[in-house]
Amino acid sequence: MGNATAENTSLCSIDHTIHQTLAPVVYVAVLVVGFPANCLSLYFGYLQIKARNELGVYLCNLTVADLFYICSLPFWLQYVLQHDNWSHGDLSCKVCGILLYENIYISVGFLCCISIDRYLAVAHPFRFHQFRTLKAAVAVSVLIWVKELLTSVYFFLHKEVVEDGDRHRVCFEHYPLEPRQRGINHYRFLVGFLFPLCLLLASYRGILRAVRRSHGTQKSRKDQIQRLVLSTVVIFLACFLPYHALLLVRSLWEASCQFARAIFNAYHFSLLLTSFNCVADPVLYCFVSESTHRDLGRLRGACLAFLACAGGGRAREAYPLGAADASGKSDEPELLTRLHSTFQTPNSPGAGGSPAGGLA
């Protein structure tokens, strides 16, 4: 590419040290932790769908998007270890870049869907029941995927492997920003991030208000719900706010190599933060649920029984049948019953109308 034109050359020469030091650590950590965690999350989401729970549809779609991104990490790991020199073709760069960036907005979309569904379940359990069905969840999921796939067409129309000032073939990196990128970045900030964030905050504000107005709810239960709600917002903001704030700054003011160099490390650190969403999603929306704990216990019991079947049922003694489900009936108020029912499993004790005893 020695005779590259200005059209396919990134003009700035920038120190990419952050890619050779911090990025490999983050990518390896997300691969090692995120892949098995999301596989388990996919299994638990399947159980929710089997129980006719629409939240399982959103959870499975969220997990699939995370797994797609995780599958692209080996390519990005190779890229940064080769000092930001893309050794594959332009098409593979576009696919990996789309998996990286679109995962952000698919995740944002389904997190927003989950927050709205929870709000309707707690504050309006009967009024909007038609929006809390499997069919409605599938329709919304299809719309989110179609929207993001159509957006990704934009990236296929332009060359994304370019040559920087050090003659490296960089992927999805243009410094300074090209004029064509500013419009799509404004769209990503306003439509892909800010609007869903407003919906998420409004939904969780409504959940907290409904919980606080509930008479008879134990203070420990109220605190538990509030911690879950606030932790969701904090993780959302921690993973996505820094990146989109700096994306907006770049789109508004980046016009020179000097500015690009000044903001490069902060921008790419914020981009690395978005990767942790792949680890936070299954932890936040799956493993905090007591119904999930029961399913995990059943899975563990089945594995122990399989491994120790020749030992005379040792696993059955260590994990007796029904121990995870012996919760009995609960005296919790109707508000918590509705909140718990958002994450019922097929065999949970709450499936017949009594509270499940866990928070989703």
TrEMBL record:
Residue ranges of every copy of the G-protein coupled receptors family 1 profile domain listed in the record: 37-285
Q: Which UniProt keywords apply?
A: Cell membrane, Disulfide bond, G-protein coupled receptor, Glycoprotein, Membrane, Receptor, Transducer, Transmembrane, Transmembrane helix
**Keyword Cell membrane (UniProt):** yes
Q: Where is this region: Disordered?
A: 341-360
Membrane-crossing ranges are 25-46, 58-77, 97-116, 136-157, 187-207, 228-246, 266-288
Molecular functions (GO terms): G protein-coupled receptor activity
Cell wall biogenesis/degradation as a keyword of this entry, yes or no, is no
Q: Where is the composition biased (Gly residues)?
A: 350-360
Q: Show the Pfam families listed in the entry.
A: 7tm_1
Topology of the protein relative to the lipid bilayer: Multi-pass membrane protein
Q: Where in the cell is it found?
A: Cell membrane
A cellular component term (GO) from this record? plasma membrane
Give a GO biological-process term: positive regulation of osteoclast development
Regarding protein family, the annotation reads: Belongs to the G-protein coupled receptor 1 family.
Q: What is this protein called?
A: G protein-coupled receptor 68
Q: Which organism is it from?
A: Neovison vison
Name of encoding gene:
GPR68
